[in-house]
């Protein structure tokens, strides 16, 4: 691993699926896993291509119960390209002597490279060099170049190039046994002598997908005219090409592919569009040049330059940070802006979580807000387009307003499973995760944070305010009045912890007065009233008329925001939920001694016929999420508004209490805990930050990353550098800095955008320097610690001694 490259210098079959996920190529429109072009899906490899928002629903019979799941569909594989000596078997790394192997993911330019030197059973030595890309600026195009060079032989070589639509969804072991055939064949044909065409359709959502592949051969920069034999099957089309190979004279095979769907804009029909695009496409080198340029432009805006303290052990961390930025920009990019998609928790890199959208946005959006907020705007509009579905969901449950689902896909209906499989016990068990209503709090928080950073009044007027007000209505309707306590309560929900979904031995799922949920509701109701104050009078009046939002309803919001109930242990700890203090302590040492890592403690306990509901244990941060999202000053104001004390020791005391009771069963857990420890325990925070950086690279959860990367944790790791280490807050129309640079980092430099202003930041342990480079925009207010804020305009600089 070097500064800009992820390197593998040996072929390691057990690690291939992990490498394929980490070497995925994408552009925000579609992603293709980094599988070898000659590979088919088996125990070693899993090729996969996924369209952003490309879903399909199928029914499955699980123990006599019919369940319907919506999946991110594995689209036709455009990669297939292999070769052989005439009369021999097709190339297979398992069947040859590998003399040299090198695979490189070029992060700077988005190119996957592979170099192989091998000897076959006849003693013939051949070199193979491959480069592939998914075009970052021409979203429908991808390319694969293969250079073959004979070292000690000459003769006839056969090449096979294909488009394979016979693929199924089989990338997640625990989903096997469920229905997985999503594609139906429509058409296979030759467009011309060098171009193949395949069209399929998803069998429920009826999305048509068309691919065209052009394969050309070159020697000495001259195109070769070769014999081609076509192979046709209902969902497959390929061709055999025969060519004479001479020792020492490289042969180049160039494969360019176009991919369109029936949902694309500005086309007549996806098959016509794919055919036209492939006809117009330049050669591999010219396309690659444009692709490289697009990536250089993205890195100019998104890169984080870090100087470490001189320790070589930390150099890998720089590459891992860039790897995380790279995968974020392959999942969401400028191409996303034209699409109706959300941001999935596992990227478009595999089939884990079925490509659904959860609450991970709250970890992803901060990075985008301060770099390329146009993408955030698109992703928030995904939520707005599903506002009516959220309203219907609330109405069906007897609530007002809008209730967004825990898992969202194509339509915005609740996609959470009703039962899920525990591989530790082999049992299907109830899934109550749909009770994580706090996803609605995350959406409201994201809307307000986007507005705070961009000042995008148009978005607030026509999209954001309506969503936020309807979410506030939902929370107000779910809150119930406890006359004996003179407090409002929220009952029957789940918090972010996820381990606890019910009380021990309870007949019904759900918990009462989850602290994180209740505090977030208070904040939302305050924020909703503030939004009403911000809106121009005419728009506010019309919006209230459309929503039927009356004065007494808003007054009730104010009452709830002052009388929400929070529960505390006797020692001042904020109780995660009502009754948490009564749960048993878990014998962590016993379980770690027995199982080693206990990240998925829920599965371990269920396999022992036990449940986390009986214990004080957490999968990830719950109460501590409050310290992640809000400053101490903000929380103090919220608690005082409710009539509760919030002392200096409240934060460190709660961090200490809950951290020792957390299994880190989610990669998001280390993100939050690194953040909340960053001021009180810098050594502990850096250790957790390092774990976040290595989580996917080393597959820290033991088998999950091959199914898809963890995008929330990846974005969260960058945001730890961007906002936590630099100490950025964006509130009260001000960009605030309170740096807390770890001792391991000597200096960092990055570029941000705030209220339309481009800001270059340079930070070390002595100074913070800002340069505003965008002229012609309104001045921005910048604050430093407790110092008075200053106004900065384009072309102005500011330097602050720390």
Condensed summary:
By secondary structure, this protein is an alpha+beta fold. It has 20 helices and 32 strands.
Report what the structure shows.
With 802 residues, this protein is an alpha+beta fold. 31% of the residues lie in helices and 26% in strands. It contains 20 helices and 32 strands. The strands form eight sheets. Strands 1, 8, 9, 10, 11, 13, 14, 15, 16 and 19 form a ten-stranded antiparallel sheet that branches. Strands 20-27-28-29-32 form a five-stranded antiparallel sheet. It starts with a strand and ends with a strand. The model has no long low-confidence stretch (mean pLDDT 96).
List the defining traits of the structure above.
single chain, 802 residues, alpha+beta, 10-stranded antiparallel beta sheet, 5-stranded antiparallel beta sheet, 20 helices, 31% helix, globular
Secondary structure: elements and pairs:
Blueprint: E1 5-8, H1 16-22, E2 25-26, E3 30-32, E4 49-51, E5 55-62, E6 65-72, E7 81-85, E8 97-106, E9 111-119, E10 125-134, E11 141-150, E12 155-164, E13 183-192, E14 195-202, E15 208-219, E16 222-223, E17 227-233, E18 236-245, E19 251-261, H2 270-280, H3 284-302, E20 305-308, H4 315-331, H5 361-369, H6 373-385, H7 387-396, E21 419-422, E22 427-430, H8 439-454, H9 457-478, E23 479-482, E24 487-490, H10 515-534, H11 537-547, H12 551-563, H13 588-595, H14 601-607, H15 625-629, H16 632-642, H17 650-659, H18 667-677, H19 682-694, H20 711-725, E25 728-731, E26 734-737, E27 745-754, E28 757-764, E29 767-772, E30 780-784, E31 790-792, E32 797-801
Parallel strand pairs: 26-30
Antiparallel strand pairs: 1-8, 2-3, 3-4, 5-6, 7-12, 8-9, 9-10, 10-11, 11-19, 12-18, 13-14, 14-15, 15-16, 15-19, 17-18, 20-27, 21-22, 23-24, 25-26, 27-28, 28-29, 29-32, 30-31
Helix pairs in contact: 4-20, 5-8, 5-20, 6-8, 6-9, 8-9, 8-10, 9-10, 10-12, 18-19, 18-20
């Amino acid at each position: 691993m070097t500064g800009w490259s992820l390197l593998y210098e040996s072929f390691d079959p057990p690690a291939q699926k992990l490498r394929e996920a980490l070497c995925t190529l994408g552009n925000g429109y579609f992603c293709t896993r980094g599988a070898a072009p000659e590979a088919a899906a088996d125990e070693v490899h899993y090729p996969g291509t996924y369209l952003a928002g490309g879903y399909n629903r199928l029914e499955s019979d699980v123990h006599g119960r019919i369940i319907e799941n919506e999946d991110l569909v594995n689209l036709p594989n455009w990669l297939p390209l292999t070769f052989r000596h005439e009369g021999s078997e097709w190339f297979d790394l398992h069947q040859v002597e590998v003399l040299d192997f090198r695979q490189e993911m070029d992060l700077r330019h988005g190119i996957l490279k592979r170099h192989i030197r091998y000897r076959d059973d006849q003693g013939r030595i051949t070199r193979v060099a491959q480069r592939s890309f998914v075009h970052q600026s021409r979203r429908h195009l991808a390319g694969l170049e293969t250079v073959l060079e004979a070292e000690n032989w000459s003769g006839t070589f056969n090449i096979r190039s294909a488009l394979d639509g016979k693929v199924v969804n089989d990338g997640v072991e625990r989903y096997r046994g469920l229905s997985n055939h999503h594609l139906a064949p429509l058409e296979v044909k030759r467009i011309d002598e060098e171009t193949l065409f395949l069209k399929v359709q998803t069998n429920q959502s009826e999305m048509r997908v068309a691919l065209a592949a052009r394969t050309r051969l070159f020697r000495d920069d001259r195109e070769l005219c070769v014999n081609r034999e076509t192979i046709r099957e209902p969902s497959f089309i390929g061709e055999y090409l025969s060519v004479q190979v001479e020792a020492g004279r490289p042969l180049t095979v160039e494969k360019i592919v176009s991919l369109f769907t029936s949902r694309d804009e500005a086309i007549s029909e996806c098959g016509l569009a794919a055919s036209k695009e492939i006809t117009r496409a330049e050669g591999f080198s010219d396309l690659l040049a444009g692709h490289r340029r697009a990536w250089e432009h993205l890195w100019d805006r998104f890169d984080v330059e870090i100087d470490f303290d001189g320790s070589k052990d930390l150099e890998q961390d720089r590459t891992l940070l860039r790897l995380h930025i790279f995968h974020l920009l392959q999942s969401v990019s400028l191409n996303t802006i034209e699409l109706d998609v959300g941001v999935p928790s596992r990227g478009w890199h595999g089939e884990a979580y079925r490509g659904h959208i959860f609450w991970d946005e709250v970890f992803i959006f901060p990075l985008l807000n301060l770099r390329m907020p146009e993408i955030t705007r698109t992703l928030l509009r995904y939520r707005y387009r599903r506002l009516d579905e959220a309203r219907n969901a609330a109405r069906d449950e007897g609530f007002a307003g809008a209730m967004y689902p825990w898992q969202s896909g194509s339509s915005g209906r609740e996609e959470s499973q009703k039962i899920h499989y525990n591989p530790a016990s082999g049992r299907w068990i109830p899934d109550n995760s749909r009770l994580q209503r706090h996803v609605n709090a995350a959406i409201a928080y994201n809307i307000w944070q986007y507005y705070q950073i961009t000042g995008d009044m148009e978005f607030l007027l026509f999209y954001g305010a309506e969503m936020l007000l309807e979410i506030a209505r939902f929370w107000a309707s779910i809150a119930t009045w406890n006359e004996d306590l003179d407090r409002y309560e929220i009952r029957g929900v789940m918090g972010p912890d996820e381990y606890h979904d019910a009380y021990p031995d309870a007949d019904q799922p759900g918990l009462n007065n989850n602290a994180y949920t209740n505090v977030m509701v208070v904040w939302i109701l305050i924020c909703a009233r503030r939004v009403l104050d911000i809106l121009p009078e005419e728009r506010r009046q019309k919006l209230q008329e459309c929503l039927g939002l009356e004065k007494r309803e808003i007054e009730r919001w104010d009452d709830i925001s002052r009388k929400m109930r929070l529960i505390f242990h006797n020692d001042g700890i904020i109780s995660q939920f009502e009754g948490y203090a009564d749960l048993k302590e878990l014998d962590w040492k016993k379980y770690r001694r027995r199982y080693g890592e206990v990240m998925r403690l829920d599965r371990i306990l269920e396999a022992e016929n036990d449940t986390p509901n009986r214990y004080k244990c957490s999968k990830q941060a719950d109460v501590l999420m409050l310290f992640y999202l809000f400053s101490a000053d903000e929380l103090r104001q919220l608690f005082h508004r409710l009539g509760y004390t919030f002392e200096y020791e409240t934060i460190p005391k709660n961090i200490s209490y809950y951290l020792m009771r957390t299994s880190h069963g989610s990669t998001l857990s280390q993100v939050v805990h690194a953040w909340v420890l960053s001021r009180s325990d810098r050594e502990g925070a850096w250790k957790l930050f390092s774990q976040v950086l290595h989580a996917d690279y080393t597959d820290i959860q033991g088998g999950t990353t091959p199914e898809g990367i963890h995008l929330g944790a990846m974005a969260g790791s960058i945001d730890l550098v961007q906002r936590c280490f630099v100490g950025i807050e964006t509130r009260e129309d001000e960009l605030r800095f309170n740096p807390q640079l770890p001792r391991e980092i000597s200096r960092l430099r990055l570029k941000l955008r705030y209220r339309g202003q481009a800001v270059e930041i340079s930070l070390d342990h002595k100074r913070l320097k800002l340069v505003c480079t965008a002229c012609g925009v309104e001045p921005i207010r910048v604050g430093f610690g407790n110092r008075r804020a200053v106004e900065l305009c384009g072309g102005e600089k500011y330097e602050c001694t720390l």
